C-alpha cells in the first residue's frame, strides 16, 4: 500500500488525513478543481492535480497507479439534488471507476446518524451513499465505512464559528440546544483513516468514530465561548423560533451557517449506537477529549 488517491483532500478533515498519510510515508494524489491547493501542496508526499471528480472521465483517469482511495467529499448545505450528487452519485461513480481500474480498496467517510429514515436530507443521502457502495462489494470492492460524529479541531468550522459569534453578540439564541453530540478530534479521525487504509482486515466493516464524552449543543457552544474568552448567555430556542432562525440563516448573504435541513438533523442525538466497532479498533486506543484540545477548565 503505497499510492493513495484522496478525494476531498483540501478540506478540513482532508488536510489532516493528508498530513497523517504523509507521516506514514504514503504517496498521495489530491485532485482539486482549483489550483493551487495551498493547504496540502507543501507536503512532500502529496501530488496536487487539477480535476473535477464529478466528471466520470476525469475521475476514471485518476485511478490507475493507485492502491486505494479515500473519499472525504461531503457537503452540509444544499438542495436535495446537491446532496444526491455529492453523497450518492459521486460514490457510485467512484466505485465504478475503482473496479474498472482494478483498484479494489476504498475507505469512505460517511456520517454518524446516516439512515434512510432520518429526518434530514443530509443524513438520508449519506445512508443512500452507503447503500450504493455496499452494492459493489459483491463485485470485489473492499469497502470500509467510517461514521464520525461532529469533528472538532483548532481549525474547524464548528466550534470556531460559535466562538466568533460570541465575540460579536451579547447573547446566542440557539436552535437544537438540547441535541447531544459525541465530538471526535480531527487527528483521531485522520489516524483512524490511515489505519483503515493500511489494514485490509477493516474491509467489510463499519466504524463509529466518536470522542470520549457526550455534550449537548448548548454545552458545546458554551465551551466555545469560554475557549474564545467571550462567554455569552446561550438561550435555547423553542421549535417554532428555531425554524424561523434556520430559514433566515439560509437566506442571509455569504456562506450558509445554519439551514432547516441542519435543524432537522438535530431531531436525533448524534452519539454512538454501540452496535459498531470504533476508534479503539482502528488504532486509536485513547480518544482525545475536547478539553485537552481547547484548553477548557
If you had to describe this structure to a student in words, what would you say it looks like?
The longest helix is centred in the first third of the chain and has 22 residues, at 80-101. The chain is built from eleven helices and 13 strands. The protein has a domain at 3-150 and 184-209 and 272-284: NAD(P)-binding Rossmann-like Domain (Rossmann fold), CATH 3.40.50.720. With 297 residues, the protein is of the alpha/beta class. It is globular.
Q: Using the alpha-carbon principal axes, give the shape.
A: globular
Number of helices: 11
CATH class of the domain at 3-150 and 184-209 and 272-284: Alpha Beta
For this structure, the quaternary state is single chain
Radius of gyration: 19 Å
Summed over residues and divided by their number, the pLDDT gives a mean of: 93
Widest sheet: strand ordering: 3-2-1-4-5-6-11
Residues in helices, as a percent range: 25-40%
* CATH A-level architecture of the domain at 3-150 and 184-209 and 272-284: 3-Layer(aba) Sandwich
CATH homologous group name of the domain at 3-150 and 184-209 and 272-284:
NAD(P)-binding Rossmann-like Domain
Question: What kind of sheet is the major sheet?
Answer: 7 strands, parallel
Can you give keywords for this protein?
297 residues, 7-stranded parallel β-sheet, two-stranded parallel ribbon, 11 helices, 13 strands
Amino acid at each position: 500500500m503505497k499510492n493513495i488517491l484522496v478525494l476531498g483532500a483540501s478540506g478540513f478533515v482532508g488536510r489532516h488525513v493528508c498530513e497523517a498519510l504523509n507521516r506514514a510515508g504514503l504517496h498521495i494524489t489530491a485532485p482539486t478543481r482549483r489550483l493551487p491547493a495551498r493547504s496540502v501542496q507543501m507536503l512532500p508526499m502529496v501530488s496536487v492535480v487539477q480535476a473535477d471528480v464529478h466528471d466520470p472521465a476525469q475521475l476514471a483517469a485518476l485511478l490507475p497507479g493507485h492502491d486505494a482511495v479515500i473519499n472525504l467529499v461531503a457537503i452540509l448545505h444544499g438542495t436535495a439534488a446537491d446532496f444526491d450528487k455529492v453523497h450518492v452519485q459521486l460514490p457510485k461513480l467512484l466505485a465504478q471507476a475503482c473496479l474498472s481500474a482494478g483498484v479494489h480498496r476504498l475507505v469512505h467517510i460517511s456520517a454518524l446518524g446516516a439512515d434512510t429514515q432520518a429526518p434530514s436530507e443530509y443524513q438520508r443521502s449519506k445512508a443512500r451513499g452507503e447503500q450504493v457502495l455496499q452494492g459493489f462489494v459483491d463485485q470485489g470492492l473492499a469497502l470500509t465505512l467510517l461514521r464520525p460524529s461532529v469533528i472538532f479541531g483548532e481549525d474547524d468550522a464548528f466550534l470556531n464559528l460559535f466562538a466568533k459569534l460570541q465575540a460579536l453578540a451579547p447573547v446566542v439564541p440557539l436552535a437544537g440546544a438540547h441535541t447531544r453530540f459525541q465530538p471526535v478530534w480531527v487527528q483521531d479521525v485522520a489516524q483512524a483513516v490511515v489505519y483503515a487504509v493500511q489494514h485490509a482486515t477493516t474491509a467489510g466493516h463499519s466504524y463509529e468514530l466518536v470522542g470520549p464524552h457526550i455534550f449537548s449543543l448548548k454545552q458545546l457552544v458554551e465551551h466555545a465561548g469560554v475557549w474564545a474568552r467571550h462567554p455569552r448567555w446561550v438561550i435555547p430556542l423553542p421549535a417554532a423560533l428555531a425554524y424561523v432562525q434556520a430559514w433566515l440563516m439560509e437566506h442571509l448573504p455569504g456562506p450558509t451557517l445554519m439551514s432547516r435541513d441542519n435543524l432537522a438533523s438535530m431531531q436525533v442525538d448524534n452519539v454512538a449506537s454501540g452496535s459498531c466497532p470504533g476508534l479503539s479498533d482502528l488504532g486509536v486506543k485513547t480518544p482525545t477529549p475536547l478539553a485537552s484540545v481547547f484548553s477548557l477548565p
